[in-house]
Description:
This protein is α/β, with parallel strands linked by helices. It is built from 18 helices and 13 strands.
Amino acid sequence: MKYFLIAGEASGDLHASHLISALKERDSEAQFRxxxxxxxxxxxxxxxxxxxxxxTLAYMGxxxxxxxxxxxxxxxxxxxxxxxxxxxxCIILIDYPGFNLKIAKYVHEAGICPVYYYISPxxxxxxxYRIKDIRANVDRLFSILPFEVEFFEQKHNYPISYVxxxxxxxxxxxxxxxxxxxxxxxxxxxxxxxxxxxxxxxxGSRKQEISSNLPVMLKALxxxxxxxxxxxxxxxxxxxxxxxxxxxxxxxxxNIPYELKFWEGSAFDLLLRARVAFVTSGTxxxxxxxxxxxxxxxxxxxxxxxxxxxxxxxxxCPFISLVNLIVGREIVPELIAAEMQPKVLHQHLQELWQGPxxxxxxxxxxxxxxxxxxxxxxxxxxxxxVDLLKKA
Length: 392
């Protein structure tokens, strides 16, 4: 069968790549075409074709979308044409709702094929009205967050399939290659010498996120931490973003009393050696918690004071980090917009380096991991998709 997938960012590329692998195992004649990234291309191999890389369309925020509207509209037009020309057996959408819901509407109205959504849009946080589009144009939605079941099925009477969380599975698989057991990750964190003095900065996967968050993270490190041994500071590089982009940001920050290094490998491996992390909100906050690293969730943006004032009017949930949302209370501190100040970041850093705040957060992580549990998300989703197509 022919599968057309669309992912619009790095995390979507990762999750979709595992879904492609699972689909290939269940459908020996599977063919793929996709908007996505390098990981999807590697998973598909000779049975797939990357039509457009996500980094050409990964814009967020009203201003960025407006500035690149022509590029986005061209991408939509080309995507619709590619679907029409290839006539796939199904469309599989991965998050990225602004783009993907438009494609879902087009495919449904044209009657081309079923539309499946793997990793649902976060309409429980904002733009809840999108449930109308999902109900009208999506044939099956696959959820990866346990609290989404109640939101979709009880609040909106829209049946979904909860398949487990792929991030948990991906990390478990990564740890297996290192002879580590995810169920004992807490013990590893306490015993590892590597976690004594490494600080990880994960400023995001998009240029806009990085340019907004990394300077504030670095300015927080200009304030001495007050410990005997100087921390090792590692800045995690995002896939497909050139090193020179980070170098330009560092030029405008000023002196920092610690040695800065760039981490070019897997973020999982960086977190395995980190004692504390500053993390831009997103999937990385969940990865950090699963790997048992105390963190401060960051999301700086222009017009911060207005954003903080208006937040209750456009955000439907009390938290922005997946860690807090899954547990249902604050486990990790969230510094949003104007709240993200260097002095505040530094204060949290001191509290999480050692002491009661650190132990309290690590205890909360255990509860979060127990709620997730690994259930083979891509395998479950692929199995149901293939079964649905065979029945059709």
